[in-house]
Amino acid sequence: MEEKKGFFKRLVEGLSKTRDSIVSGIDSIFTGFSSIDDDFYEEIEEILVMGDLGINATTSIIEDLKRKVREQGIHDPQECKQLLIESIRDEMNAGETAYEFEHRKSVILVVGVNGVGKTTSVGKLAGLLKEQGLRVVLAAADTFRAAAGEQLEEWAERAGVDIIKGQGGSDPGSVVYDAISAARARNADVLICDTAGRLHNKKNLMNELGKLNRIIDREYPEAYKETLVVLDGTTGQNALQQAKEFCEVTDVTGIILTKLDGTAKGGIAIAIHSELGIPVKYIGVGEQIDDLQKFDAESFVNALFDVH
Predict the structure, then answer these.
(1) How far is CA 26 from CA 35, 47, 218, in A?
(2) Are 106 and 225 in contact (CB under 8 A)?
(3) What is the pTM of this model?
(4) What is the mean pLDDT of the chain?
């Protein structure tokens, strides 16, 4: 349990800026209002939207809160805090099926624009899965960015997993093809493919991802397929926009949200889930290999409100 607590503590610290912007505002509403009325709800709504939870999630959370207040006959604003925490948590629950790929032979395609921490996240994810006892192979299929292969190689070493890479500028498809052969030969549980992060235009990206998906379907039809988009938490609504663009070109099954330790926009985790119906599956709060962990709605909301 020590490690888990360590991460929770880092999460609490990492979300401090978000907490300052959201929670302190909400606390002042709970103490500042003597009754629960439209103004009370409006104030909460405004703070949630400002905290990057987005209109969808906020509306849903407020509706849920109103329903609970009605059903439980609550009149004191102070008593609403716990209900609000529950409503936010319910809004984000990913469910048990979110990590299906851990239990089957799987291929994970990791996508995301350059600069969001994509290659780093691939390395950390490999470390996390290895720690769970899974045999992991990495494919360095981001062959456009010169440093991506070397960077991934360093992470592979750190995580203690195998890596397949081509020459710089070589065809990503051939790297994935070779990596599938290697994953098969080594009886790997999970093959994680780092892909090119250039959103230079949607058509190119679509063709590239389409090609990789076809190779996987053809060469490794029995593998369970997962596509994770890496987003930078510090970019708030911009991250949401990026996620939408990737959803248009490929079948995104989950989100890795990075850099939550440096932002007041941590509420974006809630917005993404609500707007896109895609769960945040992993969150990153730092640079160390164990700074990427499974997303747990309860831990996240508890850390956000600093509830132990």
Answers:
(1) 15, 7, 52
(2) yes
(3) 0.88
(4) 87
